[in-house]
Automatic annotation (TrEMBL):
InterPro entries, alphabetized: Ald_Oxase/Xan_DH_a/b, Ald_Oxase/Xan_DH_a/b_sf, Ald_Oxase/xanthine_DH-like, AldOxase/xan_DH_Mopterin-bd_sf
Name of the protein described by the UniProt record: Xanthine dehydrogenase YagR molybdenum-binding subunit
UniProt xrefs under SUPFAM superfamilies: CO dehydrogenase molybdoprotein N-domain-like, Molybdenum cofactor-binding domain
Group of enzyme by EC: oxidoreductase
Keywords attached to this entry: Molybdenum, Oxidoreductase
Annotated Gene3D superfamilies: Aldehyde oxidase/xanthine dehydrogenase, a/b hammerhead (3.90.1170.50), Aldehyde oxidase/xanthine dehydrogenase, molybdopterin binding domain (3.30.365.10)
One Pfam family linked to the record: Ald_Xan_dh_C
E.C. designation(s): 1.17.1.4
Record domain Aldehyde oxidase/xanthine dehydrogenase a/b hammerhead: where: 46-155
Molecular function terms from GO: iron ion binding; xanthine dehydrogenase activity
Length: 231
């Protein structure tokens, strides 16, 4: 129902429409709900905003990652021979051929403190285990799909691993309990309908307007970087 139709409905069946003061008895907050200028709003809604992947420079090449398909384990072998022979491919990087990378230990970091391709250890599903460098994005993406990686996956039980992560004691409700509120077990047992199931949700990203991308330009002395960031 449109606002005009809603007002007509109120006027016809319920008397006159309430005044704006009656609809908003309390003054609006100076922060919550207040109109704020979006300096990038016009550029985004008009399609003129430039994101990291929109920058192109002469001679620019493209990198596409190969991601781990196991959650934990070690890389036994990487076969990039097919990818290296594909059109436009310049290089395939992985832990076996990349040079040591410098990292300033005193610098700020988010969560990943290991250099790329530091060793053959896989710490999480989707970890970058190799990367294809090519003349076009499409060539790099196609070649990355031909890189074969053999793993020695770790065998583990998530339930027992989570149990080991709980504190030994000192929490309300007994040992090895992080928090407790109400009688959840009793309510579940007495419920007329019970659903006991394990659900798995897919990976989600909360940046749909800009995909993950970084463009770096080396001028022989300095690196200029355009990157997707938060904030």
């Amino acid at each position: 129902m449109l606002f005009r139709e809603f007002v007509e409905f109120i006027q016809s069946d319920k008397g006159p429409a309430p005044s704006p003061e009656a609809m908003h008895p309390n003054p609006p907050s100076a922060i919550i709900g207040a109109d704020l200028p979006r300096i990038d709003g016009t550029a985004k809604t008009s399609g003129n905003a430039l994101y990291a992947s929109d920058y192109h420079f002469p001679g620019m090449v493209y990198l596409f990652p190969v991601r781990a398909t196991v959650a934990s384990g070690r890389i036994r072998r990487i076969d990039s021979s097919k990818a290296e022979k594909m059109p436009g491919v310049l290089l395939v990087l992985h832990h076996g051929n990349i040079m040591p990378l410098y990292r300033n230990a005193s610098g700020g970091r988010n969560s990943e403190d290991r250099p790329p391709f530091e060793d053959e250890t896989v710490y999480y599903w989707g970890q970058y285990v190799a990367a294809v460098v090519a003349e076009t994005f499409e060539q790099a993406q196609a070649a990355a799909g031909t890189v074969r990686v053999d793993y020695d996956p770790d065998k583990f039980n998530v339930a027992t691993s989570l149990g080991d992560a709980l504190p030994a004691e000192g929490q309300p409700g007994g040992p090895r309990v992080l928090s407790q509120r109400g009688d959840s077990e009793g309510v579940f047992i007495s419920a007329p309908v019970q659903v006991d199931e394990t659900y798995i949700t897919p990976v989600e990203t909360h940046n749909p307007m800009e995909m993950h991308a970084t463009v770096a330009v080396w001028d022989g002395r300095n690196i200029r970087s355009m990157s997707r960031r938060r904030g």
